[in-house]
Amino acid sequence: MELPLDKAAARSTPLALPAAGAAAAANQSPASLPLGPPAAASAKPLVAAANPPLLPVVAPAAAAPKSSSGAVEESKEGVEESNKSNVLTIGSIRSTLMKHEDTIIFGLLERSQFCYNPDTYDPNASRIVRFNGSLVEFMVKKTEKMHARMGRYKSPDEHPFFPENLLEVVEPSVEYENVLHPAAANININKRIWDVYFGDLLPRLVKEGSDGNCGSSACWDMLILQALSKRIHYGKYVAEAKFQGAPDTYTPAILNKDSDKLMELLTFAKVEDDVRARVMSKAMTFGQVVSEDLENEIKLKIEPELAVELYDKWIMPLTKEVQVQYLLKRLD
Ligand SMILES: O=C(O)C(=O)C[C@]1(C(=O)O)C=C[C@@H](O)C=C1
Questions:
Q1: 97-to-63, 139, 227, 237, 316 alpha-carbon distances in Å
Q2: Are 10 and 16 in contact (CB under 8 A)?
Q3: Parallel, antiparallel, or unpaired: how do β-strands 80-81 and 299-300 relate?
Q4: Where residue 295 sits, what CATH number does that domain have?
């Protein structure tokens, strides 16, 4: 994807304005924006889904338990059962997490085709009139402002990176069903996600230096950040499903404010192994460079181990962190 801010396009479009380019890029984003109404509603999303679609905004809400008797049963071995179809099951939440993997891995593959492009992150290089900050900050802030107008952050599974910066929703707004405890609304670890992405992940994903594609770099950064945020904050739903499945198991640790015990209870080593294996396999499959020359060795766009490490070191630990934060407040 070449944006007006990118080198090739800029040569023939000297008037390309960063503001217009960034806003256009935000609108053109190939990953769908989960701005639609709740899964339970029948209306179409406001933005057409493309490659690969994110989930309906409140997928878990469609499976909201109607009464505590419909709770999920779960053992430490990760076996879960439900005797009702419309409950928040750990199985349905895990299949949502699997779909998030596709979005994250595709994003990494796309961003990896560009160099690091340091000007994207340098406030002095952005030269955006009346804006103090880098190009990527500009893109995320402006996009979030617009998405807030469309109600994105009214949805309990959406979290802005710049919450102080949002605009009011245009009418009519959608009422989202929420299965989470109200305290969930105050859990937002996007600052950490931002720091991990720019501090640890990005420099290892891309080649050093500049290729002029700052607009595309910022656009993919934003899409990856949004996908990471969505996946990690899904920890709230994971935790709710686990609590509903075994309230007696979690309650003493919650009452004792015992974070370590909660961490131990909600950790499933076998599930984590499966996640690592699946991410490896997806990164190898989606990341193949397809050439006409079938004789040659298969080339990969990114090292699959990097995607696995991302999950191992950050995505799963941060998802667990969200779960602990949520459970600590679950009985407030
Ligand atoms: O599936 C779960 O039970 C989760 O809590 C999610 C998750 C993950 O982030 O993928 C996190 C912790 C568990 O140990 C296993 C997997």
A1: 15, 26, 11, 11, 11
A2: yes
A3: unpaired
A4: 1.10.590.10
Question: Which domain does 297 fall in, by range?
Answer: 7-329
The counts of H helices and E strands in the chain are 15, 4
Give residue 194 CA to ligand 1 midpoint distance, Å.
21
Three-state DSSP at 80 gives strand
Polymer length in residues for the chain: 332
Q: Which residue has the tokens 């961490």?
A: 263
Q: Is the CB of 327 under 6 A from ligand 1?
A: no
Q: Does the residue 2 lie in any domain?
A: no
Domain count, the chain: 1
Scanning the structure block, which residue is given the tokens 């005797």?
A: 83
ipTM of the predicted structure?
A: 0.99
- Asked whether residue 1 is domain-assigned, the answer is no
pTM exceeds 0.95: no
**pLDDT (tens digit, 9 = 90+) per residue, 51-89?**
333 333 333 433 333 333 333 334 554 334 433 444 589
Q: Tell me the C-alpha distance between 179 and 68, whole Å.
A: 12
Q: Tell me the two tokens of residue 134.
A: 């880098």
Question: 268 CB less than 6 Å from ligand 1?
Answer: yes
CB of 195 closer than 8 Å to CB of 225: no
